Amino acid sequence: MPLPVDSSTITHGIQLAVAPVFLLTAVSGMIAAAVGRLARIIDRARVVEDSVRHTLDETRLGRAYKELAELRMRGRLVNGCVALLTCCAFLIGLTIIVLFLGETTAFEINRLAVGGFLSGVVCFLLALLCFLAETVIATRLLNFDLLQRPPG
Question: What is the three-class DSSP state of 5?
Answer without folding.
Answer: coil
